[in-house]
Amino acid sequence: MRRPDPNRPEERGAALLTVLLLVAVMAVVAATALERVALATRMTGNGGAVDQGRAFADAGMVIARLKIGDLVAASPGKTTLAGNWMGTPQAIPVPGGMATARVTDGSNCFNLNSVVAGNNENSLKVRPVAVSQFQALLQALGVDVRQAQVAAASLADWIDTDSVPQPAGAEDETYARAARPYRTANRFMVDASELRAVNGITPAVYDLVRPWVCALPVSDMSPININTLLPDQAPLFAMLLPGQLSVAQARQLLAQRPAEGYGSIPQFWQAPSLVGLSPLTEVAEQVKLTTGFFRVDVSVNVGGTQVVERGLIDARQPPIRLVRRDWGTGA
């Protein structure tokens, strides 16, 4: 076999082409390796920023819990809007960024778990008065009567522990006919987002009702604090007396609240605008002067990475404690 002759032009060209191909391949491999190193470096940096952001958010949650403790201790028998604490952003400088904390009344909402009675999750029974309140809330927000009735009854069936559907409600057989079959939970809701799975709750209805509902870790009737409920939240009071009090009347009542708040429940129910109304005993007791649950939102921005922590604080009795939290991130 003849050996290659480097003096022949065509063979020198072939050798040069081979070298060029090798250089090109090595360049691609090197570029890919550098890209992966850069990506790994960025991921490591982002992960570190997220971890640092979470640490700062945890610290902000602790500070908020202590401040809530001071608020409750300062006025144990009455929680009012005094001090402008409700919803006011509190900026907290942190190394490399800024944290912002907001505290709101976590009780002024419809407690989805109130549609059942009982704390033993093996025996949760439908509470009709709360089902009626949820239906009234939906109607006050513009949902038609029939759809509101279906949604409210189906919510009760979703949480109660029996398998018998309420009139207009839905149990397992309804969900078994879905494109992706599933079953009722038969337990308390942990987060209000679970409402999306309930029969009668369309995406439009969910978007409408989401700002007004919550999933407190108890089955108590929605504990509305009449001293912190804002006029814009009038539907939450109107739902307590369906057919007796309009949203407009409830809004006017809240706008006329004394600056120092109400000092007693009887004083509230004796307000001129409530004369002639006849709330059920459990509804009358549902109105509170204090806040039992506070919602805290902490947003931390460190190095362009945003971390959000949302927590639910139980302040019904000392020690005040964090009972639930979830996380989110943003660019």
From TrEMBL:
Q: Where are the transmembrane segments?
A: none
**Domain T2SS protein K second SAM-like positions:** 224-285
Stretches assigned to the T2SS protein K first SAM-like domain: 108-217
State the compartments where it is located: Cell inner membrane
BP GO annotations: protein secretion
Q: Does the keyword Calcium apply?
A: no
- Family listed: Belongs to the GSP K family.
Q: Tell me which PANTHER family the record gives.
A: TYPE II SECRETION SYSTEM PROTEIN K, TYPE II SECRETION SYSTEM PROTEIN K-RELATED
Protein name stated in the entry? Type II secretion system protein K
Name the source organism.
Sphingobium yanoikuyae ATCC 51230
